# Entry
Amino acid sequence: DVSLKVVAESSRIQLDWEQIKHFHQFASAAYGYWWYIIQSPLGHCCSLGAYLNCCPALCCCRQKQEMMVEGDGFFHPNLAAIRCQLDVKEEDILMFDNRNRIEEVPFFLVADRSTKSLVVSIRGTLSLHDMLTDLRGEPGKMADESVKGVNVDWHGHQGMVNAARYVYRRLHGMETGRDGGKEGRCSRRDLLGLALATPDYAGYSIVVTGHSLGAGTAAILAFLLRARYRGTKVTCYAYSPPGGLISREAAVESEKFTVSVVVGDDVIPRTSLANIATLSRDIKHVTSQCQLPKFKILGYGCMAACCSTSNTPISGELDRLFPGSGVSSPGDSSTDGSHRELLIEEASSILPTNPDTLSSFPSMYLPGRILHVEDIHSANSFTVSEVHRTAFSEILVSPRMLSDHLPNHLDKVFQATPDTQHILPVTV
# Structure
């Protein structure tokens, strides 16, 4: 059993905070113009205009863009946002597919000359189609016997496994089984294989990255690309990946080439089928014992989450349910999660568990080596520590559980940390 938990240190991916910060730009750029403009509406609208394809009717512009862009409208605003954020040459953007359906995620392929890498960046959740992909969380096989290098017993989040296969097939010009097999001539080109064989990109490595849904898809795609390109270094940087992503054996293997970054109380890396079942069980128990009307619990709870204000009715009820706990109010609870951990521990200790229900969900984990970024209660100051994959085995309910997941919040975190940020080692 120990062999499943430990990978030789020499074979594990190195934790380079400067590289992690650098490739987050690519993960963030995959969201296109919408998130880019939100960050600074006036300034970014002006900077975006210089990159828009304002003359698509001209033959010289149209033919050049059709070779690499699909599903990005008339003026290619998302491509413009990518170029604006990454400041890359147009010829280095090898592919951009912005089409979006269930289990079909937008992505782009770009050559990063500063790190000599071919970067595949996959967009996170931004549409109803993406949400439906997220919801298909049952385990599915990453690959069958035809894919050498990927163990047939390795499982992953089914929706993201299918999304990773879609991106893999698009990168290599294979039929995706969609659109009735009517992919265009440009879609049938093995763009990634051709790029690796191009003299301009000789010796380049492959980096796969993404945020949220994109991070989960990227982590699974990295397995497939490593199996195909055994002589090429393949690395994955997953930002705020979803919990319950891959099976235990696959998670151990991914420590060789994947780094996951989790910020604060982010709920998504803690969301798995087993964790949802546990949270649901605890909530049902506490609410059944609570004497407050349910509308007061919901109202005061929303007020505390939105405004971080204390509320006497819930505080008093907590004291009644958990006497001697010393809990007074949400405003007095520490941000390290001690309040929440106490609540879960107390509730679980007096609640009869249902092993049959929980055992129906196989254990699934975050990929790779996992870094947890936490605020140390001072302006723009954070600690970064490596944690074990079991550190996110329960959902923390806090006012920051959603805001810590947003890509613009991650941008602020990375801007506030130096390239030489110290990373605390994992504690056993």
